[in-house]
Design goal:
Layout: H1 9-60, H2 62-66, H3 68-78, E1 81-88, E2 91-97, E3 109-114, E4 122-127, H4 142-165, H5 167-180, H6 197-229, H7 239-251, E5 256-264, H8 267-274, H9 276-294, E6 301-306, E7 309-315, H10 319-334, E8 348-356, H11 361-377, E9 382-385, H12 398-410, E10 415-423, E11 429-439, E12 445-447, H13 448-458, H14 461-478, E13 485-488, H15 491-494, H16 497-508, H17 512-515, E14 518-523, H18 524-529, H19 531-543, E15 547-553, H20 561-565, E16 570-573, H21 575-578, H22 585-597, E17 604-608, H23 613-622, E18 626-628, E19 636-637, H24 638-658
Parallel strand pairs: 8-9, 11-13, 13-14, 14-15, 15-16, 16-17, 17-18
Antiparallel strand pairs: 1-2, 1-4, 3-4, 5-7, 5-8, 6-7, 10-11, 10-18, 10-19, 11-12
Helix pairs in contact: 1-3, 1-4, 6-22, 8-9, 9-10, 12-13, 14-16
Length: 659
Amino acid sequence: MRKASGMKLTNRLVTFVTLIVICAIFVIFIGGALSFRKLGQDYLTHYLDGVVEVIDQELADPQGSQAISRWLPKLLKASNVVELDVSSDAGVIYSFRGLQKINDPNILHQGHYQLEKNSGFYIDLKSLPPYTEFTYSLGAMSSISLAIAMIIMGLVWGMNWLRLQLYGSELLEERGRMILAGRVEDYEVGDEKEWPATASLALDQMVAELKDARQERSRFDTFIRTHTFLDQLTGAANRVLFDSRLESAVQDQETHGAVILIRIADWDELLAEKGKEAADELIHDVGMILSNLVQRYPDTVLSRYFDAEFAIMLPQQSAKDVRLFTNQMLNALERLVPPAPLELDNWCHIGMTSFVSGERRGRIMDEADMALRSAQLQGSNNWFAFKKEQQTEDARGSVRWRTLLDAVLDADAIQLHQQPVISASDGHILQRELLARIRDENGVQIKASRFLPAVEQVGFTIRMDKQVVSQALATLKLMPSSEVFSVNLNVASLLERSFVRWLRDELLQTPRTVLNRLSFEVTEGALVKHLDAMRPIARMMIGLGCKLVVDQAGRTIVSTHYIKDLNIDYIKLHRSLVREINLRQENQLFVRSMLGACGDSRAKVIAVGVENEKEWEVLKSLGVYAGQGRYFSPEMSLEKHLIADRKETRSVFHNNTKK
């Protein structure tokens, strides 16, 4: 992959032109200095030749030789000759020594000359080279100084002009850097000064087309998931999604709940007499009533199971609560006036059965259908519960739950378990999800899936999240730098300003190195529902160094635009999508759609609830980033993990000491 250059085009050109000008000035100065020196040497040699020639002529004249001591010193002083000796084979005839003070004798020019007219005579002299006694003068060097000043001024002006001309290319380059950094939305349209203009316009068009393609991809992915798992008329889940959720629920440990079937009588007659429009209107009204009723119960699945039949799964609810809900549902449906030929007092019937972990999905649906038929035999709007052996369930009411939870929170007795997330590429531990557990009055451990609905019901969500976050931060500070924790947070807590301020203060007091190893998980449905309120909170978490994880993706069918909007780090698939994915093509289609939605973002998809090798092989072939489930490791107490980690650390230290 090509890497973006780290140096701007303008800086390159400015540097290049500056170097060229500096090199040219340097060459001119060096050449001028050498030429100046050569001219001085040639001038001195020519002048001294003339002096020697005058001396030669005067020595040839008897009268001149007699007066040599009178005229020669003046000539030598005028010629900058410091020393001169006129000699022959017999010895020195005349010697001259000037009175100038020479600091460095090495600078003197020395010459040896044979006299042509006086054979056998020669002259040795030392002379000052030209310009040695001259200093820099602005007047004398005014032309050179002016030329240098003009060159510098021209260079500065040229650089400024070049920067101005290339400013548009810098804007275009900066825009390209921001797009490569992922800030496409902020730099969707370029500045009018960008240059070349054609490249800027082409980039504008490509970014606009990319944005449209992303929106179309998001709409298409949502369309695929909607038509695969949702009923188009009511917006409720279809039979495929309901069966998948029920299958996943009964395979989980410590799960119980109820399945309710609602059937509209004489549907075929209504369809034949009133037509599809009237029949669809009745189905839509019934779906609205049921949808409003199930909003109070978390993890509830409402499905249009057949044309005139709805199915509801109520997990983790006691038999008393289920009966109360069924009565409320029947009363709400009876307030609806059905069109003829449906009878006002005999048009809707409800069948209900309970389930616990380990039961078969098919048997549960058969029991619900048998209960529904029993309700129909009564000849009026009614409901009937399938009678089965008493099963173990938690029948605590809100008062008992409040008492238990209050005692646990006051004693700070929340126990944290952990389950690792395993990378699909190399098998290393990506992070560890922390799972809350509590113990009841008898010391029996209760999973979060059982007590979290009660926590929301009694209003202890913020207290629970505060204790979990505090315990996680304290533990993470003691763990080695390779450990990464993921903590679940309820969106309801994040919507409270007091909790957000508390969380911000706690994170600000925590070292950055610890926050970089901390992730926060929120459920997809609640996140999308309160997307506007969650944006600043998500920016705060990411800005402080934490990662943001979306949990239970696929539990509800929503648009995936939030992935890019909030810069999500990880997407965790709902375990119902992972369960037996090797046998369910529709779940594989959903996972492919989710992977495609994350393709142009930094979000990575994690499969939760992996139970066997076949599921994991299919998930890896689809392209998931990591997996989590009992296939890799069971849930283990965080305290046991700490003890094991300390033992391993002591063992490594002991072995190193021996070595």
